[in-house]
Amino acid sequence: MATLSITPSGTYRAQVRRLGSAPLSKSFKTRQDAEVWIRQTESELDRGIYVNRQDAEKVTFSELLQKYLDEVSCNKKGFKHERVRLLKIERDLGHFRIIQIQSKHIAAYRDLRLNAGKSPSTVLNELSLISQIFDMAIKEWSIPIPSNPCSQIRKPKVSNQRTRRLSPDEEIALISASNASRATLLTSLIIIAMETGMRLGELLSLTWDNLSLDKRIAYLPETKNGESRTIPLSLKAIEALKATPRRIDSKQVFWSWTNRDSVVNVWKRTCKRAGIKDLHFHDLRHEAITRLFEKGFNVMEVGSISGHKTLQMLQRYTHLRAENFLERLG
What we know:
The protein has 330 residues and is mainly alpha-helical. The protein has 15 helices and six strands. The protein is 49% helix and 9% strand.
């Protein structure tokens, strides 16, 4: 049984009753919306598929983001970076109630970020995070959201694969500029990066306890993909490590930096001093992996050193110079 009445404020109050269950009611601005809700609710009740979404209608996306921060994001290795990203998302979507958010709202957010000059990869990462939150709400927290609004939108096309290689002259200039830097560990950091292919975060977390200069190996107990990795050290890497000054009160190899941003700032100044343009620190990882292939290591061997699990992932970091094939071509 359904009833429809007008409230003193002029809205329409719809109510649906079923024997043995509490009555369901909702207010609407128009009679048409109220009648549509009655028909839909009665149909879902008759088919046994009705889900009470009243709780979801009270929850804002901002509240959902906070729950994700407190229960999921805080346990991630990159919590600080993800928290910043979530706060940016909250600024544009936090005021919505989660039941209101549709694919058109997510698409509008995507376009807003792209038009603001954000890279497709940045926007794609943000959309992926939003999608994870909705999936968590539906599957883990049993919040009655009809569907994930991110599943139907067009994703930004990412085409940011870098092919930047470090030329021999640039390498000489880079080492010379780093030697002249007040950052005493910078030269060692650059050499170890080029010799091992370690990520910047892995280098900054490297400790002397996890190094064996006699066995020529570095052990990384935790990496980006959550697995440990053992890396062989070249003679050049060993030489650089032996020349690296240590601190008695720190086990960190590169103790002068506490976060990546401080390294990036020094890196930019050093590249400018060396006259090198468009070279990111992460390009040293590209360079190291490519050099391993040029030395004759196979895919499995390079993957075990770099931590990549598939050829496709390795290809993204590998840019062999065509002239290096000439001798073998004849």
